[in-house]
Amino acid sequence: MGVRKSEPKCFTISSTKRETTDMQLERIRLKTFGCFEQRDFELHDGINLIFGPNFSGKSTLVNAIFFTLTGKPIVPRVDASAIKNAKAYSGTAGLQFISEGERYLLYRATGKRIQLRSEKNGAWQIVFDEKRVRVTETLLQERFGIMHEQLALTTFLREGEIFEFLARQSTSRRDILHTLLGIDRLIEVRERFIDTRRIAKREQGRIRAHQNSLRFNAQNVDQAEIKRLEERLKGLEAAYGAETGDAALIAEWLQHQERLQKRLDTLTHEQREASRGFKDIDQLREMVVKIENSIQEAAGLETKREALLQQIGSLESQIAALTNVCNTLRTLIESDEQHCPTCYQEVERELVQQIIGEKETEKSQRCTQLGTLKQSLETETENLKNRQALEQRLQTLRGRLTRFEQHVGEIEGVRRELNDLMSRLTKSGIQNGGKLPSETPVGLDKPKLKTQIDQERKRLDQLKQQEAVRLDRLGALQRVNRDATKVEKTLLSLELACAGVDKTIETLQRQILKPAEEELHHWLEKMELFSVSRGSGGQTRVDLQRQHLLPSLTIDGVDRSLMLLSGSEKMFLYLCFKVALAKVLGNPGFFVFDDPTLHLDEERKALMVDFILQLAEEHQVVVTSYDEDVRSGLEGAHLIEMRRDTSAKN
Questions:
Q1: 637 close to 48: Cβ distance less than 8 angstroms
Q2: Mean pLDDT throughout 257-266?
Q3: What is the pTM for the complete model shown?
Q4: Residue 32 to residue 597: CA distance in whole angstroms
Q5: Which structural domain range is residue 647 located in?
Q6: What is the CATH number of the domain that holds 109?
Q7: Residue from 52, 148, 140 nearest 650 by CA
Q8: Count of domains for the chain
């Protein structure tokens, strides 16, 4: 059954004229590229049909167009060196096109060299000749708006692409959406905010732990009680001195001086131990700051390590898949079967052997990449261990710094009391380290008075020590509380910043995807997809935001899973989705479809031909096919006939 004749709603090729677009392809130029030694292919406005049997080089031309514009093969995860001629050191693909009224010739080699020429007064002039990949991609994007992700999703259709897209993870489609919308920088800013927020939360946890360690009874010691005890002690000492003479009082002062000196020596020794290994306390503080900065610079190691683990897992899966493919192909060669059990085509053993060689080469490259990634993983793991050791070292140094600062106030209080006592001794004629006069009386007749003085003095020392500790801890707690307030404000600011970035991303998605949904509706109606529901008065809605670019169908108010659609319905929905995105994001002026009628029945083939005819009303279309029905349906298209001897006839 042939393709049905186009009804009046479809236009013939000769009457189809596109509006002026940014880019019109004129010629494909190949040299040692794929199965071609050297060949040029002319392209015309409207529809260009590349027609021929399997293994005749149709997909090679599609790959050449894509590779010339993006620098990457159209099939994902394939190295550029794999698409050159197997007998050549390097392959080159060229594309001649018109953009904004000027003619250009773009050459790209599999060795990463790229050259752009422009026609001036009938002669070609070199615009740039570069090997730096990032520089050339930036130049092409600025001059022609060429982006790999955008072309792959909106302009080209390769075999099996729709099923790969449907099988993508939601996060993968989200990343594609972000790249298409040009919000990569916003994503980077948000990731930095998230990393900073992670560091701030870690600091908040440390501060809370420090706060808990400083908790104490905040009840103030009565200063009046301390003052009262001091006055009472002076009175008791005066009374004791009047009864026993100055010698006994001086003896008590000397004993108290000795106790204070021992306490001072103990505190000084503990303070020296806290700063041991450092020149002074300032050097200790500098070391703490330096380690904090090093830990902050090492932030994000967990994310890098997780990304490496994901890449390693992906490569191992690819290597396993390539191994299975090679084993399957070897089994096919070694069997006596003359036809492929899957596609029922004749088995060309030399070609299959060549494919096995290419897959083995690709597998070797993936193994090399896997080894490199594993080395990187070991390095990142070692860096993570070093950072954890630094964090432990930082905790130890902070503890020593806290102990040092706690002793400062207590040492000052002991020194003041010691200086006051030494001043009393000096007034009594006793120098530092002096002894009592020889006329010191032997006995004391006031033991009760002395006991009372000792008790009051001990009570006073305890109260002063408690007050010093309380004030020191209170000061430390106030400093920690100030730090906690700063961190909380920082966290709040980061939360607001992340929310603002997310809102901006959501707004950009809505502003872009809403027109895309409307355009997708337009093409669904134009292609009469799901027309049974609409014929009964129902409505069909498509949502591109719910699952990041994956069309979500609602028919008559009921969600319909894409997985329940037929293969042809998925194909047409996906093509309409491509055209809609291309119009919203900016189409370069052409579409390239690689065998779009594969696995379609006769009726769906006719619909696909109608779709291509309608698309050619506004765009240049390049189509590959081996189906005679498609050839007759696109009668009048510019025909490029391919043969398995790698020659072509225009």
A1: yes
A2: 82
A3: 0.52
A4: 29
A5: 1-146+591-650
A6: 3.40.50.300
A7: 52
A8: 1
